[in-house]
Structures are given as C-alpha cells and as structure tokens.
Amino acid sequence: MGVIWAFISSSLGWNEFTINWIDPFGTIFIRLLKFIAVPLVLFSIINGVASLSDVSKLGRLGGKTLGAYMATTFLAIGVGLLFVNVVKPGTHIDDEQRIKNRLSYELWLQENEMGPSQDGRSFLSDPAYAKYLTTDQEEQKLTEDQKKDLAAKMSAAKEQKEGSPLTFLVDMVPENILFSISNNQLMLQVIFFAIFFGITLVLIPKENAAPIISFIQGLNAAFIKMVDLVMQAAPFFVFALLAGVIAKMANSPAEVFDIFLGLGSYAITLLAGLFFVIFVMYPLILKIFVKKITYREFFKNISPAQFLAFSTSSSAATLPVTMECVEDNMGVPKSISSFVLPIGATVNMDGTSLHQAVAVIFMAQLHMVDLSLVSN
User: Fold this and answer.
1) Interval 281-298: pLDDT, tens
2) Fewer beta carbons within 10 angstroms: which end of the chain, N or C?
C-alpha cells in the first residue's frame, strides 16, 4: 500500500504532503526499533551467557556460530561473483558511455599519480578514442567536492590497509561502554562487553550473581515488551516508511521508472543472487541440519522479520522481531538465540557481502576494467 500510495501521490503532485506528513512516521518507526535494539542486544546476550552453567559450552557455541557465519558469508560472495560474471550487467550499458567511463577512470589515475591501469590497456593513448577525449575531457574531471570526498575515502582505506592485522580485535574492545551503547555503529563493542559481563556472572558465586541476573532478566523482558507494543502499529509505520522512501526518489512515476531502468541489469543481477541465497541456499542448509521443518513452514515462521527487514533495510531495527520469530515460531531456546542473533545482526552480513561482490565487478565492467573470474 505504501508503494501504491507513493506512485499515486507522485502522479497527482502530492509528494510534498507525503514527505512532510507521512514519511516522518516511518522515521519514528526506525528510531523506535533502533533505540530498543542496543539495550536488547546487551541484556539478551548477558542473560543468555549467564544462563549457561558451564563456560566451556559458550566456547563451543561461539565456535559453531562463527564457523556457520563464515561459511554462509563465503557462499554468498561466491553466489554474487558467479551471477555477476554470468550475466555481466555492466556490459549492457551503451558502449559509448562505457568508453567515457574508461577515459574518466584513466584521467583519474593520472590526476592522482597512480600510474597506468592494472589491466595494462590505455584508452587515452589510443587514437580510436580521441574524439571522446577531446569532446568530453572536461566532463571526465571530478568537481572539487567530489575530489575532497574521494580523497577522504582513499585516506581511510589507506589507513586501514596499513594498520595492524589485529586492528579489528582492538576495535572490538570498548574504551567507554556508555559511549559504545549510545552509538549504533559500535554494536560489536556492546556485544564484547555483554559476553565478558555474562561470563563474569557465571564465574562469581551464585548468591552474588542471582540479584544481578534477576535484574537483567527484568530489563530484557521490558525491552521485549517494548518490541511487542511497537509492532502492533507496524503496518501503519511500514506504509509510511515505504511511501516516504519512494516519494523522495522522484517527482513523477516516470522518473521512478527511469531510476529503475538506468540500473536495471545491475539490480536484476543483484536481486537474482539475493533471491537464490534466501530461497535456495538457506533452505538447503536448513534441510541438512533440521529435518523436522518444511520449506513452507520455515518461511511462514520468519516472514514477519523478512518483511520488516525489507521495509527498514536495517539489521539492528529488525533484530527484536527476528528474535521473537526464532524463539516463538521456530522453537529455538532463548539461551541460544540471545547469543547467536545479536552477533549475527552485526557480523553476519551475507546480503551485504553478496552486494559488494556484485557492485565491484559491475563497476569494473562499466569502466571496461577486466575483473572477470578468468583474469584472476
């Protein structure tokens, strides 16, 4: 209904009304779920770890969890690379535009004194492409703002490349847990603290840990109830969210369709890979390890979380509903779900991994840079 409303409002010139009076409710929805997500992750993990009587069980659970996450991530990347190399969406763009993109790429290399292209080809010195260079050279150059933005990104990438191999471990440990809790971007630090705190509760005498665990269980229950209250209004919020997103994209239905058509081959390739992961790869993995549940039951049980993820595009915002689906509909013990799911929402980004693999190869194809499977 939100998508239909956005097309109607854009055709009737009501976009401003949609953005000013409907879209804010979608923003409120995401904010509600995000502010619930961090404390829910914190108290769920502490509660889950503290409920383990044997710390060695945590090691086994953690090993299996990380192993599963790494395996699905590699599979997702492989699916993305396979689809983008078979479909080759970047080659479906007009050849003239691709030549201009290539010239822009080589000019950028020259301006930044980065040497020749890694594939050894030079379009700048080829007479066949001289007409594009002379007529469009000014268009190939970046604006000052673009240069500044690009320089900042390159500096950050260089800093990360030159950093210690263990930098990611350092980044996991919080300097100030209150600051980490207040920042949705530092969820991994919150998880580290929660696991450490939960292990500590297991190791101290039970009479000392009992009141703390009871207090945390109460807080956890309160935040879960918050999720229930917010989700009662979810249909309206999702309507507002999707109506606002599409209304901001364009002023008319034709412009919306133009946006989709411009990157149509890329979008179709990406969606095909994502659908393959969701509807083929995941069910096959489930079938190997869980014999009882059927294909239909699986998607029926997790559908609320999937629809919410589609509308919010946020793992953190979807996490509370995911936990509810897994525990209530799938029958997974809370001691398992409260440990596995918050970590997964932070580090197990299969869709993002597939998307980045497809995007990099698509951009290479768009600029006539050879990054095919054969070239590597």
Assistant:
1) 998 998 888 878 888 888
2) C
